[in-house]
Amino acid sequence: MPTFYEAIVDRLGPRCLRTWDSHGMLVLDIDASQLLVVVEALKADFGCALFLDVTAVDYPARQPRFDVVYHFLAPAQMQRVRLKLQVDEHAAEVPTLTGLFGSARYMEREVHDMYGIRFAGNADLRPILLYEGFEGHPLRKDYAMEHEQPIVPYRT
Amino acid sequence: MQYRPPVSSPLAQPLDPSHVVVNIGPSHPATHGTIQIVAEIDGESVVRADVHCGYLHRGFEKEAEHHTYHNIIPYTDRLNYCSAMNNNFAYAAAVETALGIEITPRCKWLRTLLAEYNRIADHCTCVAASAMEMGGMTAFLYLMTVRDYIFEHMNHLSGARLTYSYVRIGGLARDLPDGWLTRLEEILQFTENYLERVHGMLDRNRIFIGRTRDVAAMTPEHALHWGYTGPILRSTGLRVDLRKDNPYLAYPDLDFEVPVGIKGDNYDRYYVRMREIDESIHMVRQCMAQLPEGPINVDDPRIVLPEKELVYTRIESLIHHFKLVMDGVQVPAGEVYSAHEGPNGELGFYLVSDGTGRPYKLHVRSPSFVHMGGMHTLLEGHQVSDIVPTFGSMNMVGGECDR
Q1: Which residue has the higher pLDDT, B3 or B370?
Q2: Distance from A54 to chain B by nearest Cα, in Å?
Q3: Interface with chain A: mutation pick from B8, B350, B360, B380, highest number of A CBs within 10 Å
Q4: pLDDT average, residue stretch B311-321
């Protein structure tokens, strides 16, 4: 009987660029085009019913620039899986997971806010932690920490 | 100056001309937290709702990239400020996993004790606020009294009532003061007494049941789909608890139950929280009885700050102190996701290190934020007056939601 992680690697390994272990958690490096297929399989066949988190990591000097990182939880086995894919700054577009998980709606909006990564198919990418008219993406490394853009002018 | 909302809402155009769009918050007494709910109502029932958060966004993740690992601890306090200990410990666990260190037994048991103790305060706050919004002023005052005793007691321990900053990477700020555990037992007994009174006032109260039973109910599938975790997920009947299933700290050695609900409605969320307080009290007592003696910090000068006296008398300690303060703890390059069972649900920290003393990226998986993403599904179809109890039972904490 293969373990939970072995079963995933057996089944989805060919679709991944690399599979590795990060402090006891299975990580699948994939290409953006494989995202929906892999997540559908994780949800349907491996019980990953809880979409925990999506975030991005910015490497300005690297091509492609961003890592998009997903975390899933299989509640019955209490095992987590991490998916990572790389996306370029100019064609920064990743398929949305809102068709599979409602929770993707808010979390993808946050990543769009903070990194400017577009989630193709997510109809609601309004700002969520920021406001309309905010220029730039604050969690990108080239957004200076001291940079201010107050929505209401400072009183002098 | 003309008013313009920070984020436009699709509800500005109602589906039907007879519908009315009302705005609740972001600064409203019943939202107890800066959140805005735009609701399209037909008579008294909510047709569509749009929940806006972000009014308390302070750029935690951006700040974290510019601070050393120790300097981030006070920022983590300000995520869920009702249970700062749980945030502290979840953050420290992520950094310690990345460092590959094992904390001392006493530290492990003390962290467990304090996490459960703080969970009592957090659940009391949530139940108190929800009861007060439904007119249960006495229940509110009783639970707030309990909470205040706990905060005063934590103040004795850490010097702050809410924002403790009590954790250190690889240990804790200091050991328990004299007599702290004796006072803890007094407060636990006091809490039990008051909880009994709250049970007596609310459990079979017709008004309370009328406003909470079958309001905003959800199935386990719905809860998973919308990413609910913690007491909200358990109130639907799913027994998912990280303390049981992915045991960390001293939880494998503790005896406790995981209370679950039946329907996932507001009443179940109230009851699950009340039962969790019972379990937390039980766990705190076990921790008190089994608390081992010994050091609270790991014995590694590259991680733990030296004793102040040694800094002034020994050159090695002075150097360690200087390096730790100026450069920070050197965390090996890599990435780690570590999650604890926070009072609201899965509180995860995703840390990417590039091998320096500051995180390259620190992301918080905050339960409140994800919970708000699915809240409109619980409001739609219910009455306007149900918005407030439903919102209260979610226990959204602005600091955690908006970071």
Answers
A1: B370
A2: 9
A3: B350
A4: 89
Which residue out of B1, B2, B7 would a mutagenesis test of the A interface target, given it has the greatest number of A Cβ atoms within 10 Å?
B7
Q: Is the pLDDT of residue B196 over 70?
A: yes
Query: Is the Cβ pair A23, B336 closer than 8 Å?
Result: yes
| Structural domain count of chain B | 1
Residue B114 in any domain: the answer is yes
Interchain contact A62–B (C-beta under 8 A): no
Indicate if the alpha-carbon torsion angle B89, B90, B96, B102 is positive or negative. positive
> CB distance B54–A50 less than 8 Å?
no
Nearest chain A Cα distance for residue B257, angstroms: 17
B41 within some domain: no
Mean pLDDT for B303-326 is 88
Domain, as residue range, for B158: 73-300+326-402
Residue B63 token pair: 């700040």
- State the complex-level ipTM: 0.89
Closest residue in B to A48 (Cα) is: B224
Rounded Cα distance, B324 and B307, in Å: 13
Q: Which of B224, B348, B372 sits opposite A106 (nearest CB)?
A: B372
Interval A87-109 mean pLDDT: 86
- pLDDT averaged over chain B? 88
> Cα–Cα distances in Å, from B44 out to B21, B356, B392?
12, 57, 19
Q: Are B391 and B31 in contact (CB under 8 A)?
A: yes
Where helices occur in B100-229 by DSSP H, the ranges are 105-133, 137-158, 180-202, 206-212, 220-225
Of B7, B370, B372, the CB nearest to A127: B7
B33 occurs within a structural domain: no
CA distances from B76 to B293, B303, B361 (A): 28, 19, 15
- Cross-chain CB nearest to B373 (options A73, A106, A131): A106
In CATH, which of 3.30.460.80, 3.30.450.20, 3.100.10.10, 3.40.50.1110 is domain A4-120?
3.30.460.80
- B18-27 residue pLDDT tens: 888 888 878 7
Is residue B19 within 8 Å of residue B380, measured between CB atoms?
A: no
Mean pLDDT of B25-51: 82
* pLDDT > 90 fraction of chain B, expressed in percent and rounded: 35
CATH code of the domain in which B107 resides? 1.10.645.10
Mutate to test the interface with B, among A98, A126, A129, A152 (most CBs of B within 10 A): A129
Shortest alpha-carbon distance between residue A11 and chain B (Å): 24
Cα–Cα distance measured from residue B172 to residue B92, given in angstroms and rounded to the nearest whole number? 10
Compute the nearest-CA separation of A132 from chain B (Å).
6
Q: Is residue B246 domain-resident?
A: yes
**Averaged pLDDT for residues B295-321:** 88
Q: Residue B89 and residue B70: Cα distance in Å, rounded?
A: 13
Residues of B in contact with A4 (CB under 8 A): none
